[in-house]
Amino acid sequence: xxxxxxxxxxxxxxxxxxxxxxxxxxxxxxxxxxxxxxxxxxxxxxxxxxxxxxxxxxxxxxxxxxxxxxxxxxxxxxxxxxxxxxxxxxxxxxxxxxxxxxxxxxxxxxxxxxxxxxxxxxxxxxxxxxxxxxxxxxxxxxxxxxxxxxxxxxxxxxxxxxxxxxxxxxxxxxxxxxxxxxxxxxxxxxxxxxxxxxxxxxxxxxxxxxxxxxxxxxxxxxxxxxxxxxxxxxxxxxxxxxxxxxxxxxxxxxxxxxxxxxxxxxxxxxxxxxxxxxxxxxxxxxxxxxxxxxxxxxxxxxxxxxxxxxxxxxxxxxxxxxxxxxxxxxxxxxxxxxxxxxxxxxxxxxxxxxxxxxxxxxxxxxxxxxxxxxxxxxxxxxxxxxxxxxxxxxxxxxxxxxxxxxxxxxxxxxxxxxxxxxxx
Length: 424
Ligand SMILES: [Zn+2]
Known about the structure:
- By secondary structure, the chain is of the alpha/beta class.
- It contains 14 helices and 16 strands.
- Helix content is 42%, strand content 20%.
- Strand 8 and strand 9 form a beta hairpin.
- The two termini are 24 Å apart.
C-alpha cells in the first residue's frame, strides 16, 4: 500500500509540474527553458523533459532565439494558441449562443439559435444542436465544453439543480453531454462564469477578490475570492436578485414581493418604461404608447441619455435599490472591486453614480470608500469566454493555482491518460 501511495504522489507531482511549466510559458508568451527553470524553481532537466513532452503534444513550439547572455543564444518556446480548441456556451441570453474558442480566448466560430420560449427537453435538444454545429466547425482537437447556464447549478457534479425559465430541474448536463460527445464538460451558473471571464480575460485580470453583478432578465453576482470562484455550500452564492429591496413591492417570479429583480433587472426596467410610455405624454417614450411591446432596453437607454427626466428618475430608483444590495455584498465580502455587467451598462454614469452613492451611504465609510463600482466592458461574449476559462482552468491548469485539486480528482483526471490535454 505504501508503494502505491508513493507512486500516486509521484504521479501527482509530475502532473502538477507539467501544469506549472505550461502555465509559465502561457503567461510569459515567449520564454527560454532556462528562464522557465528560474521562474518555477524546477530543475533544468525537469523543465527540458516537460517542454519536450509539450512540444511532442504540439501544445508548445520553438519560435526562435532570445538575446544571448554571452554564450549561445537561448531557444524560445511559446504556446501554440490554436493547437487545441474548446467550446464555450451561453444559455443565459434570449438565445442559445456558443463558440469555438482557442487557448487565448479568441473566438474562431460562432453559432446562435433562437430559444423562442422553448424549455424542458426541447431546450436540451437545442443545446445539442448548438454543440453539434460547433464540433463540426473545427479541425483542432477539442479540450472540452464549458457552459454558463441560468439557475442554481452544482458545478462539482455538473447538474442544473433548478433553472426556472428553462424548466430544468436536476438536469445532469455534464453526464448527458459527456456521454454524447466524449469530452470533458464543465457547467456553472452564468453570473459566476461572467465573473470568471472578467478575472481571466477582462480588466479585473489577476485581482484576488472580485464581484461581478450581471443584470439581464434576472440579477445575480459572481464572486471570486482568493483567485477562485466561490459557489457557497448551496451553490447559491451571489443570488442577490431575490433580496427584498422594496417592502410590499411588486410581485416577483420567485413568489416574494419587492425583490431587487422587480426593480433593477432589464426586464423590470423595460416593463416600467412601457407603463411610462402609455401614461406619460411628456416622456419621449410616449411614441411607443400604441405599441409598447416594441420598446427594448436600448430605447430606454437612449431616452435616458437624451435627458428624458421621467426615464432618468426611473433609472435612479433602479440604481438606488442596487446600491442597497451592494452595500450588503460589500459588508459580507469586503471586495475592493465590483463590476456591473449586462445590458443596463448602457445607462453609464447615470446608474453608476447613484449605485455608488447609495452603497456608500449604507456602508461603513471606510469599507465603502475603498470599494470601486464600475461597468464591465466585456460585451456580449462574456459568458462564452468565462465558460472557456472554466475549461482552460480545469483541463490545462492555465489560470487557477493547481492546488485546486478537488476538481481534478472529481474528474478522475490524475488517473486519466489524456489525449488532448497537457497531462499524459
Ligand atoms: Zn424574487
